[in-house]
Amino acid sequence: MRKLKWLSVLIVVMMVLSLVACNNAAETPANDSKAEESKADEPKNEESVKTEEKITLRLMTISTDENRLAIMNDFIAPKIEAEFPNVTVEFEEGGGGEDYNNKMKTYNSTGDLPDVWYSDASFASAVFNAGNMLDLTPYIEEDGFLDKCAVPDAMTYKGGIYAIGSGSDTYFTPRIFYNKAIFEECGVTIPTTFDELVDVCKQISAKGYTPVSTMGKGGWAPQLFLFQTMVMIEDPQVMLDLLANKTDFNNPVVKNALGRIETLAKEGAFPEGISMLDYGPAKEMFTSGNAAMYWMFSWELPSLAELEGIEVDFFPWPSAGDAYDPNGAIQYWGSPVNGYAVNSKSEHLDEAVKLAEFCAMQDALFYQSQGTVVTLDTGEAGAEQSDLMLKNIEHFSGCSTKIASIMLNGMDAATNAEFATLGASLLTGEYSADDFIKEFQPVWEENTYFD
Fold it and tell me: 203 vs 127, 183, 217, 269, 282, CA distance in Å?
């Protein structure tokens, strides 16, 4: 009986010990877990936090243009790390011209677009139509960037803002620069009508000078500004209608405009071989004192204002109709889809928008350092403006109707190429306005830029 009793006690003791061991075993993992949690709560090394949070953005820009290269190498790249400490920016050189366009079109079709790129009107419509360009409006309204833009209308495209830049293009407009000494020597006054302009060219030619120098190679002058100017000096509304695809090249005003270029060519306003005259030689013909006038965009103002021995001025384009006011309507270079755009499918939209804003601001700082006026407020005064530049700005700002360039905003690449080819023929004086319309109208009808 006593043995049974001790056996019962021994069993109870063993059970107690077993329970204690189980409890200890159960507590051990819990304690280890708490230890791990404690480690997790410890403050991490600041450098490791930055590494974990760092993101990557791809940025692609034109890499053949001297200005774009200077902006990237001297203004953007050196400041990126300080401006975006938690972002790795991968720079991609896009090339230029057709190479850049083709690369962007390929990226657009394959879904491999950069997070931010420098947009150009020659390919922007394809990217826009694919839904790959982010409407920046709500972002730049919220953070106040839009408040720094003096001409928001020039940035608006189809109800939104899809690219942002310095706004330097906005103030670029085609001008008639003239050598005041040659005008005085030839006894001519500033013409106010197209007919007077033709007469002035004849008188200057009779004195042995070339009346007008401009870039004719590749049909550049007609393509960039001359055709548009000849339409606007009769009726600016027709150019607005062309831009909106509300009229075509059968319009009588359009035919008259082409006819004026033909007339100038036949009357000897342009130098011999104009259709092969490149940009540099065209400018040199004027700066050397061999040409009385230089028809070119106002981006040439800084260098022309510094010429020694030649006093340069400009006057408004003469009128060819009552609907035109020389101080009321003006063409401006650029396009609302030119500038830094953001991939609407970027995984880091907020950061990409900030990068685009930063790049646009660096553009503006660069152009200000070159003496060019910008519409983006950088907070800095910029270089001192020459009297000629101030006159340009005053006249431009006073014009109530500002019309975008049709080359950048109303034609796709194929249409532009055909227009340039036919424009070069028109400059020879051996190709008529009727011939131009006959060949170009079918191409215009296929234009899909605004579809």
Answer: 51, 10, 26, 10, 21
Tokens, residue 49: 């936090």
Higher pLDDT, 386 or 116: 116
- Structural domain of 275: 171-333+389-445
Cα–Cα distance, 180 to 312 (Å, whole number): 6
* Residue (of 223, 227, 216, 226) closest to 280 by Cα position: 216
Q: Where is the domain boundary, 350, 370, 386?
A: 386
Q: Give the pLDDT band of residue 35 (cuts 50, 70, 90).
A: very low
Chain position carrying tokens 């007077």: 196
Residue with token string 């230089």: 294
> 349, 367, 386: which is the final residue of a domain?
386
Tell me if 441 sits within 8 A of 249, measured CB to CB: yes
Asked if residue 143 lies in contact with residue 368, where contact means CB atoms within 8 angstroms, the answer is no
The distance in angstroms from the start CA to the end CA of the chain is: 108
CB-CB neighbours of 254 under 10 Å: 27
10 Å CB burial of residue 108 (0-12, 13-18, 19+) is buried
Residue 184's SS3 state is helix
Q: Tell me the pTM.
A: 0.75
Is there a single domain that holds both residue 188 and residue 285? yes
Q: What are phi and psi of 158, to 5 degrees?
A: 50, 45
Helix (H) / strand (E) containing 312: strand 312-315
Mean residue pLDDT across the chain: 88
- What is the separation of C-alpha 233 from the centre of its chain, rounded to a whole number of angstroms? 26
Which of 232, 242, 189, 387 has its CA nearest to residue 301? 387
Report the distance separating Cα 96 and Cα 98, nearest Å.
6
Contact 240, 403 (CB under 8 A): yes
Residue 17 has a pLDDT of 43
**How far apart are alpha carbons 317 and 338 in whole angstroms?**
26
- Alpha helices by DSSP H, listed for 207-310, are 220-221, 227-232, 236-243, 252-266, 279-287, 301-305
- Cα–Cα dist 50/375, whole Å: 36
DSSP string across 339-368? EEEEBTT-S-HHHHHHHHHHHHHHHHHHHH
